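Thread: Modeling a multi-component assembly for a lab meeting

Hi all, long-time lurker, first post. My supervisor asked me to bring a structural picture of a complex we are working on to next week's group meeting, and I have zero experience with this. I have the sequence lines for every component (600 residues in total). Could someone generate the structure of the whole assembly? Inputs are pasted exactly as I received them:
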Amino acid sequence: MEVTESWYLVLGALLFIIGGTGLLIRRNPLVMLMCVELMLNGVNLTFVAFSRMFSDIRGQTVVFFVLVVAAAEVVVGLGLVVAILRRQPEATADDLNVLKG
Amino acid sequence: MLAQLTNFEAPSVDWWILAPQMILVGGALLILLLTSLSIRKIPSWVSTLIAFAAGLATFVVAMFLWYDVQDHGARSTLAGALGLDGFSLFFTVLTALGVMLTTLIGDAYGSRERMAAPEFNALLLCAATGAIVMAAANDLIVMFIGLESLSIGLYVMAAMHLGRKVAQEAAMKYFILGAFSSAFFLYGIALVYGATGSTSLTHIQSATLTLEVRGTPPELLFVGMALIIVGVAFKVAAAPFHFWAPDVYQGAPSPVTGFMASVAKAAGFAALLRIFFVALPGEVTEWAPIFSGLAILTLIVGAVMAIMQNDVKRMLAFSSVGHAGYVLVAVTTGTAEGLASALFYLFTYTFMVIGSFAVISLIGWNDGHDIGRYEGLARRRPLVALAMTVFILGQAGVPFTSGFIAKFYVIQAAVDDELYAMAVVAMVAAVVGAFMYLRIVMTMWSRDVEAVDAPPLAVSWTTGLALFATVAVTLVYGFIPQSLIGFVRDAVPQLVAGG
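Re: Modeling a multi-component assembly
Sure thing. I ran the full set together rather than chain by chain. Output:
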């Protein structure tokens, strides 16, 4: 069976869904951060696959922008996680329950 | 594919178009440089002054560019990635005003609550830059970068009181849900790119209008549009994507909450309006029903949930959800009048909400915002109570305030477009919401209980100035809205292809 671009589209969608599901069900703040990365990389794969389909280099340049943004986002996220864990070690998302939303 | 790079030509840059962004980023860098290089401790008013000056300079440059655009037409730069039109300048003006007011409020709040002033002001300027980029972007990726600059700045600003448990929780919730929604927005962009072959709004517009098919099913475009709507609906706190709003509004420092509710919401709507009104008008039959569903749900949730709160910050958070509903009603119309009424609503709401959070920041010492604290405020501080009354009545939509004109304008646009059901829901939601607003006003004016351990309410001149300005704008546009209506009618988004 030939592996075409659409396989990568499906893989990108799967990564996005796995990341999204993980973000919603996992309680460890670090794993939640990793899930965000998984979602963004699923999108990156989608961009590259479309870029190959259209033979259009712009889709691949997008990936660089997304990587930079994702790195910035993780820096802030890690900062928050570290600050929270320093005050309450072993904290999970369930321990953040003062506010009722 | 790399062969395309041999004839690479750097796009021309029109620095005037970039001036507002450069002033704001320059201000942020100046604050960071000064505070990190200085040996002695720099007083906090210096960074406030720099941030205020940057906001003022942005405002002046934007007004200058506004008259230029009205005379010579819209243009774009950076190979058509960033546009300059009435629409982008409208949001530049709104953001600049929001920055100026927030620095004024944040100054006194920061010294009382020991919040680091340089970081607060530098992040404020960075976030404001992102908001302007979102409104001016003519390319979805540029819009995404603007959205992220705005969001990342806000994540940190929401966490400025990291010593407090509430702030930690608010910041973490905001970060996780913000990153989640950004990923949705980005995936939507990827699918729209797959459907149209470009992320440029100019190209997307022509591709969808001429129904140029690239061998991809049209569903791809629809799913992409839906994901973009979900991503932005999180940012503007539209139901059912509003869960984070009450918690984050409550936990974040009050000046930050004001900025979040005004500028961040406006920037989200700027992105929505630009994508859907300008780039995808050919698909209006597809997206209008989604927006009408969101609008009705948001109006109902905002009005009903607000009644059940006892914390003033949470009340205003749900009221802010409700206000997003009114703007969504205007978005659903898809007409030029709908666009103008959405802009009018966002502009007037900005002043009312920043003003109310200024009052909340005065009263909420030690992070308590129970409605009991507002008992007898009119007796203790009549002027503060009067200002709060104006903001609250304005948000309720009482005549002779700008909020009334804004609601009236939106409902009129909906009726003109024969969206009668939505107009009725909007009016009913206004009546239900009025109950909550009147409860705050009644608490302030009717009872006369001196709060036991209340420290004396100190109003610094900066906060006083911000309160005066916001009250004045709310009242002036309530009596003479014509000038603002002219302003929003001229704020038309236009796509200019890059040369």
